[in-house]
Design goal:
The protein is α+β, with helices and mostly antiparallel strands and 301 residues long. 25% of the residues lie in helices and 28% in strands.
């Protein structure tokens, strides 16, 4: 479910018009046609007049494929929002887009650049409080105010945020659950403790789907830890098994690492919240294909 709380500075308008500014018109009509939207827990209608603080709950996921494109495409791109209020927003980050600028990535083609462009007219400057790799999808928390950015950053840095990931690794993990406690480079380049806990969700013929929790969070922590364990993340082009990845891509068509930030939980100003990011289509289809490959072929009669 995706939830949007109407910000205090939003002017009163009809629900349908508000949604059309965020999503394609076809998707908005689908929400009402299939009864996939609620306003304050009640069935919503297109002409409902929104008020400050209204909660909009969306039950039909919106997914948009991100492709390399020109400036106009990125500037008008709408990122899927899981939750929003006056202080923060949580997006379901699509794969293939960096969270911030880098040497070969201009800011306008990043999550931060897109959000800054969309909120500039409201006088809001979105700020990242944690990171996800470019090819990792899932829940990403973003601050909307100067006051909240430091509070949220501290929660992440002090390990007060519960972060859950789903990842597919090459090979069959022998234990049902376990932990990887191995130091990784910190911000100053010095080795610092990094702890990754995991539990097996399902084993396929050559791969294992695992649910993963990390404390604090170092750069590439999950990818580095599973590679160190000897079970690299499937389709990880930097730390993975390259020959396995080549064969996997040819068989299942997956073009990026199977790593998704599925859930984030934090206690912010006395209120504990959990946000869940639906699995994107490419990963969901991969799991279905892996499951189908496990099923025995029907016997001939």
């Amino acid at each position: 479910m995706q939830e949007i709380i109407l910000p205090a500075d939003e002017t009163a308008k009809k629900l349908e018009n508000y949604l059309k500014k965020r999503f394609p018109i076809g998707y908005v009509r689908k929400l009402f046609r299939k009864n996939g939207i609620r306003r304050n827990g009640q069935r919503a209608r297109p002409d409902d007049l929104l008020q400050r603080g209204d909660r909009i709950q969306i039950f039909i996921p919106f997914e948009k494929q991100i492709k390399r494109a020109g400036r106009e495409t990125f500037s008008s791109l709408e990122l899927p929002i899981l939750f929003e209020n006056d202080e923060l927003l949580v997006i379901n980050k699509p794969p293939g887009i960096a969270v911030h600028e880098a040497k070969a990535i201009p800011k306008r083609e990043t999550v931060l650049g897109i959000l800054e462009n969309q909120y500039r007219s409201k006088g809001i400057r979105p700020r990242l409080v944690h990171r996800l790799d470019k090819d990792t999808s899932g829940a990403l928390v973003v601050s909307k105010t100067e006051k909240s950015v430091k509070e949220l950053e501290n929660l992440f840095e002090e390990g007060e945020v519960e972060k859950e990931y789903l990842c597919l690794v090459a090979g069959l993990l022998p234990q049902t659950e376990g932990k990887i406690d191995f130091p990784l480079p910190g911000r100053e380049g010095k080795a610092v403790r990094a702890l990754t806990r995991f539990s097996v969700v399902k084993r396929f013929s050559e791969t294992t789907l695992a649910r993963v929790h990390i404390e604090a969070g170092r750069m590439h922590q999950i990818r580095l830890h599973f590679a160190k364990l000897g079970y690299p993340v499937v389709m990880d082009e930097q730390h993975g098994d390259f020959s396995f990845n080549k064969r996997f891509r040819k068989q299942f068509g997956l073009k990026r690492q199977f790593l998704h930030a599925s859930k984030v939980t934090l206690d912010f100003r006395g209120q504990k919240r959990t946000w869940t990011a639906p699995l994107p289509a490419d990963l969901d289809e991969t799991l279905k294909a892996l499951g189908a490959a496990l099923k025995p072929a029907p016997t001939e009669t």
